[in-house]
């Protein structure tokens, strides 16, 4: 057993508690023990903390992590101690129809286990004395160590800084992948991105990489809109000051955009994205709403104008391909991860990081662990 510090979710709207937990020092046959170097703080963690999503307690939050392999299970191939890895929050069984057809983010087994914050055998790996502690999405990156299924530890090159790499574990892959994998945005497209947080700014980066000719961003924060410009936006809309859909129409000669991405998780901004697309256009839901929230759209318009409304989970990524590819693009200077890291904190500062996120400040706070 290894003793480790972790930030534990004890119930909605309660601060995370810093506790000493134990984790096995020997991974199971198909598992990997990782010492975390860094973890981003994502709005999905905040959804759990705010009680937007029913989440069992006690549980170690955090799902945007990178670190160094400590030990691998007896059946694990292609990974060894000291390898640098980014953690994936959709482990894949590599056997179900979704995994076999190249859509690991839809893995049946992950849906039944990791999305309940337990491992493929249905059990947690962490303990607080005699009590079991779950790991958020079978990652739990707000802890010094994580045990993950082998398919959730993706090896990356050793020269990439792990604080920036951690963000590839969620926001970056989610945002870029929504554009390149889910929507398949073509060069010359017009794109709207609603919400310029960690995820939305990566949608902007993805649209720039895909060669979009017009990238319109909308947010209620002037600071976030300015950041949108630095990541590649051509036009900004402060949707607190002007009507979002009317302004998009004015910027596109009344036509609407080819693609709209919602990266907040609110029903009215999802509806606005759908209204802002052209005939035959595609609206992509990336932001995640609180449990039970519904949207309202006009199905006559949907059929009459062949509008498409689609969802994107984890940027429809195949993590073993997408993570190293994005890291290469970063190392070549074509994807900006440095500007995404707006604060670096020790684990003990995690509750303040959520307070800043609630105020809409910064892009990503990164927890750094002692290496
Ligand atoms: N689909 C996926 O796989 C996936 C993965 C990760 C995160 N998410 C979800 O994406 C969403 C965004 O996550 P994030 O980490 O970027 O959050 P964030 O808090 O960093 O960013 C949210 C942004 O939305 C803006 N905003 C808030 N209310 C607004 C409004 N009414 N109009 C316009 N802008 C508004 C904020 O100013 C902020 O810039 C969350 O719902 C999160 O759960 C989805
Ligand atoms: Zn996330
Ligand atoms: Zn599967």
Automatic annotation (TrEMBL):
Superkingdom assignment: Bacteria
Cofactor(s) in the UniProt record: Zn(2+)
EC number: 1.1.1.1, 1.1.1.284
PROSITE patterns registered for this protein in UniProt: ADH_ZINC (PS00059)
GO MF term list: alcohol dehydrogenase (NAD+) activity; S-(hydroxymethyl)glutathione dehydrogenase [NAD(P)+] activity; zinc ion binding
InterPro entries assigned to the protein according to its UniProt record, in alphabetical order: ADH-like_C (IPR013149), ADH-like_N (IPR013154), ADH_Zn_CS (IPR002328), ER (IPR020843), GroES-like_sf (IPR011032), NAD(P)-bd_dom_sf (IPR036291)
Short name of any one Pfam family annotated for the protein: ADH_zinc_N
Residue ranges constituting the Enoyl reductase (ER) domain according to the UniProt record: 11-367
Record has Metal-binding as a keyword: yes
Assigned keywords, A-Z: Metal-binding, Oxidoreductase, Zinc
Family according to the record: Belongs to the zinc-containing alcohol dehydrogenase family.
UniProt protein name: S-(Hydroxymethyl)glutathione dehydrogenase/alcohol dehydrogenase
UniProt source species: Leucobacter aridicollis
């Amino acid at each position: 057993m290894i003793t480790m510090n972790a930030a534990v979710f004890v119930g909605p709207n309660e601060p995370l508690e810093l506790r000493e937990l134990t984790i096995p020092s020997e991974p199971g046959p198909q598992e990997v023990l990782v010492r975390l170097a860094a973890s981003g703080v994502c709005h999905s963690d905040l959804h759990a903390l705010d009680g937007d999503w029913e989440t069992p307690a006690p549980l170690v939050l955090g799902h945007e992590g990178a670190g160094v392999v400590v030990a691998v299970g007896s059946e694990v191939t292609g990974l060894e101690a000291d390898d640098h890895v980014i953690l994936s929050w959709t482990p894949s069984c590599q056997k179900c129809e979704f995994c076999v057809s190249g859509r690991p983010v839809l893995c049946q087994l992950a849906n039944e286990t990791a999305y309940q914050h337990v491992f493929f055998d249905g059990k947690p790996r962490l303990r607080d004395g005699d009590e079991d502690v779950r790991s958020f999405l079978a990652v739990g990156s707000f802890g010094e160590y994580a045990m993950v299924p082998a398919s959730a530890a993706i090896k990356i090159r050793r020269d990439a800084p792990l604080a920036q790499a951690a963000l590839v574990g969620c926001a970056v892959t989610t945002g870029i992948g929504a554009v390149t994998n889910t929507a398949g945005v073509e060069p010359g497209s017009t794109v709207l991105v609603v919400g310029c947080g960690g995820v939305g700014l990566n949608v902007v980066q993805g649209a720039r990489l895909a060669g979009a000719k017009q990238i319109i961003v909308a947010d209620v924060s002037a600071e976030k809109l300015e950041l949108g410009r630095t990541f590649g936006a051509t036009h900004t809309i402060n949707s607190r000051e002007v009507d979002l859909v009317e302004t998009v129409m004015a910027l596109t000669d009344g036509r609407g955009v080819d693609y709209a991405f919602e990266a907040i998780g609110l029903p009215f901004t999802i509806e606005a994205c759908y209204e802002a697309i052209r005939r035959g256009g595609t609206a992509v839901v990336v932001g995640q709403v609180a449990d039970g929230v519904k949207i309202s759209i006009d199905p006559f318009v949907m059929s009459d104008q062949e509008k498409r409304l689609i969802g994107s989970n984890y940027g429809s990524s195949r993590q073993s391909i997408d993570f190293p590819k994005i890291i290469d693009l970063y190392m070549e200077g074509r994807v900006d991860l440095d500007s995404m890291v707006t604060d670096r904190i020790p684990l003990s500062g995690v509750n303040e990081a959520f307070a800043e996120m609630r105020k809409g400040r910064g892009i990503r706070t990164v927890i750094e662990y002692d290496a």
